[in-house]
Here is the input.
Amino acid sequence: MQQTPTLVPHRPRVAILLFPDVEVLDWAGPYEVLAGAKDTAGDYCCQVITVAQQPEVQCYGGVRVKPEIRLELCPALDALIVPGGPGARGSGNQETLLRFIREQQRQSEIVASVCTGSFLLARAGLLDGHRATTHHQRRELFRAEFPAIELVEEKVVDEGSIITAGGISSGIDLALYLLQRWFGPEVRRQEARRLEGSWS
Here is the structure.
């Protein structure tokens, strides 16, 4: 993983992609971290939005969410986070999602995945020639579907403009990692203390 922060002079705009049967913690974890994080001056670090193809998304487990922005109206982003869940692994028509992910890869600084969101990045062609990670229970399935992609057993894998994170709660690790990459280790430590988890 890269350790040198690429400090930014503005508030990065981060979109989290939602879709039917998305895993709640995959997207809510990074949302909580990035939306709540403050810099050393006490100002909020990031602008975080949710985007989806549908006006309402039913997450895995039944929670319903109204995304803030439809895909076709998504503004310019610094980063896109693609969570996982059964909807990411599903065999339904994902072409609209994949097209959006490809567009963001061309336009954004970072495209990242959490858990089985890596399946969507792989189907979109973003992981070709890159190392990646995914949920530990889905590694064999991933290797079977994408044998040419080097799958590694790490919490967060940084390949520059493409970052993948492991299963479910690893989305929090991803968000903290982005804070360190953008703002440095003190902002990351400050947010980890706010979370009161095992991330400090």
Observations:
- Residues 170 and 200 are 14 Å apart (CA to CA).
- Residues 13-195 form a domain with the Rossmann fold fold (CATH 3.40.50.880).
- Residues 170-183 form the longest helix (14 residues).
